[in-house]
Amino acid sequence: MTRRRRFDLVLIVSQVISYIDNVAGESQWSSSSSPRPDEKTLPLLPHDSAITTRRMKTLLCVDHGCSDDCVTYETPLNTCFNGEILFPNDPAWGKYDIFDRPMKDGSDTQFHRYFFTTTDGTCEGNSQKDPPSDDVYTLPLDECVGPFGEPRPWGSFEFVTDPMDSSLLRGSIEKR
């Protein structure tokens, strides 16, 4: 299996698991009878509902006001990704794996960005930690911050939630 195909499969599986975790208390159960104590049950997906996924929307710009020559990227939350794999030949992304995680207190004013020494979208490291990285930054949401690196050193971040589209699991880019 190619590295890209494995990465896409991991993203899709993690998004489905995340969906199941988020709706476990809100959906009907897979069995009408009570489960045995040793049996795990999963919620059924309603036929007419779309799976939703929360993603990171990143706006990178050339100016410190985040308004000139900007590019928008969408990447996964709570899932390891590699910017060079998602956005090939885009100089805005470094070679190392990234894991973005919302604050554990539920605050939507900041998030944690973890960097790993891996370069294949696996975020492998010290398995004693969750996620396993010492290279972590706490960054604000909805503020223009930087500088990062060329060609667009300034940026802002926001969480977006929309119906899941499998193309978005691979990352998306929009120039404005």
How would you briefly describe this protein structure?
The protein is 16% helix and 28% strand. The chain has helices spanning 3-23, 83-86, 166-169, and strands spanning 52-61, 71-76, 81-82, 97-102, 110-115, 135-140, 154-163, 172-175.
Your description of this structure?
Helices cover 16% and strands 28% of the residues. It has helices spanning 3-23, 83-86, 166-169, and strands at 52-61, 71-76, 81-82, 97-102, 110-115, 135-140, 154-163, 172-175. The strands form two sheets. The protein has a four-stranded antiparallel beta sheet with strand order 7-1-2-8. Strands 3-4-5-6 form a four-stranded antiparallel beta sheet. It is globular and about 40 Å long. The chain has three helices and eight strands, in the order αβββαββββαβ. Residues 2-9 and 16-50 have low confidence and may be disordered. It is an alpha+beta fold and 176 residues long.
Features:
176 residues; 4-stranded antiparallel β-sheet; alpha+beta
Count of runs of 4 or more consecutive helical residues: 3
DSSP strand tally: 8
User: Structural class given helices, strands, pairing?
Assistant: alpha+beta
The biggest sheet, with number of strands, parallel, antiparallel or mixed sense and barrel status, is: 4 strands, antiparallel
Can you lay out the helices and strands and say which pair or pack?
Blueprint: H1 3-23, E1 52-61, E2 71-76, E3 81-82, H2 83-86, E4 97-102, E5 110-115, E6 135-140, E7 154-163, H3 166-169, E8 172-175
Antiparallel strand pairs: 1-2, 1-7, 2-8, 3-4, 4-5, 5-6
